[in-house]
Amino acid sequence: MDPAPIFLIGFMAAGKSTVGPMLAERLGRRWVDLDARVEAEAGRRIPAIFEAEGEMGFRRREAAALERAAREPGVVVSCGGGAPGFGDNRRRMRATGVTASLLVGFDEVMARAGSDTSTRPLLSAGRASAERLFQERQEIYRSADVSVDTSGRTPQSLAGELARRLPLHLGDIGLRLPDSSSPIHLAPLARAGELCAELLPEARTVALVSDENVAAAGHLTAAAAGLTGIGVKTVEIVIAPGEASKTLAEVERIAGACVAGGLDRKSAIVAIGGGVVGDLAGFVAAILYRGIACAQLPTTLLAMVDSAIGGKTGVDLAAGKNLAGAFWQPRFVLSDAATLRTLAPRELTAAWAEVLKYGLIGDAELFAELEAGGAPESAEELGRIVARCAAHKARVVAADERETLGLRAVLNLGHTVGHAVERASEYRLLHGEAVAVGLVAAAEVSVKLGLAPAGLDGRVAAALRRCGLAADLDPWRRREIIDMTAVDKKRQAGKLRFIALTEVGRTQPVELGVDQLAALLEARS
């Protein structure tokens, strides 16, 4: 993914135009002065724009220039003092990049700006008016991703601090959303404390939720050490591994342990483990005290490439999988590929179904690599796969955070039947193993509908087998599985929103009745 822009904000005379180019140089980026760009595009100075078009005319020009700058990768944009407070500008900044504010006292502003209204037309109304404006904008400046107090600081020291802190908010893979951000870091687990200090600064008590296997592997201890090292109190909560733990009763137990451990509304929950741990911990964070911060530290391949990213949380009900849940974005995701060395072989193998899914929905090259060579084993290759799939999911989630536009539904390829297979096996099958069966079923249905070329289902099954996964639907009682799709959470008006394939790398959503899906799956090719 292209480097997200950095927007430098603050009141007039805060030093944005001085610090901006220094910061850009330190980060190897290009600097954009938004005011200078507005003047260049208008062909006149800002006071002249104010005189001819009024403040509203200037703000419209500024917003248009900001929108264009937000589409430019790898820039540091020094914004005018009023830019983040006009129209949709702040939302656009948050959705495309990160904001950093330079905080300055009002007396210092006046000392720096003086009474020169030739370059600062908003000073023309006098000191009292300027001070009211200053107070009105403080909430905006203080809500930036990063803020630094400029009092007694040199521009060089400010640029240095921002250059150190901002990459933590950007992540190796940035997931930018209109109202939040969820940077994805591909780094050692030992950095958990550093990331919590920067991205969860208010949390002085953190609940660490993990399972028995992850705790036994030492990952819980490693994360706890990083947090206690920065003076954070930790509450360790360990669950039994496996899908059987994804229940409302376990949610109540975890929430109760958080309250007993002293968590309050400024505390946070950190999930350390696979998809079950992440789903449970994220759901508890979404509902405890009506929502507290959380972070995801996935330790399985499946969680690193899929479940830890995107904010979907939830638990199973007797009626079906993941039927109770919430969207709750983590403040950050930290994936350490080294933890995969402690993963049971079956857990690692199962995850390749989700990896192949990314190839099928939008990365034909990735699918071809796995189809030809099977699952890679080296740590370097595993890290590359994690980064590639995580970036793909981040793009999909950023385009449709809550699956309201239908774009995020593409991630459900293979899951309609896969979830039914999980339940039919009474969760003896791992999620990835069930999704493998669901991917073959999706390809089979796609071919029978005439959407995909003949033989695609065979290619999908062969690629899954090359990665070590059995992918035959027959042993899993087709009729029983089909009946279970009737309670799939993605159904609407009695029909299933089924993601079909048209070719490797391309999908097409279709609506299917349960009986229609049954007929397609029961008809033997």
* SS element count, helices: 22
Averaged pLDDT: 93
C-alpha-based Rg, rounded: 26 Å
What is the CATH topology assignment of the largest domain? Rossmann fold
Lateral strand order in the biggest sheet: 2-3-1-4-5
What is the CATH-assigned architecture of the largest domain?
3-Layer(aba) Sandwich
Structure, explained:
The protein is an alpha/beta fold and 525 residues long. The chain has 3 domains: 165 residues, 3-Layer(aba) Sandwich (Rossmann fold), CATH 3.40.50.300; 168 residues, 3-Layer(aba) Sandwich (Rossmann fold), CATH 3.40.50; 155 residues, Dehydroquinate synthase-like, alpha domain (Up-down Bundle), CATH 1.20.1090.10. Helices cover 48% and strands 17% of the residues. The chain has 22 helices and 17 strands. The strands form 6 sheets. It has a 5-stranded parallel beta sheet with strand order 2-3-1-4-5. It has a 4-stranded parallel beta sheet with strand order 10-9-11-12, sandwiched between helices. Helix 15 crosses helix 16, helix 16 packs across helix 20 and helix 18 packs across helix 21. The longest helix is centred in the first third of the chain and has 25 residues. The chain is globular. The two termini are 41 Å apart.
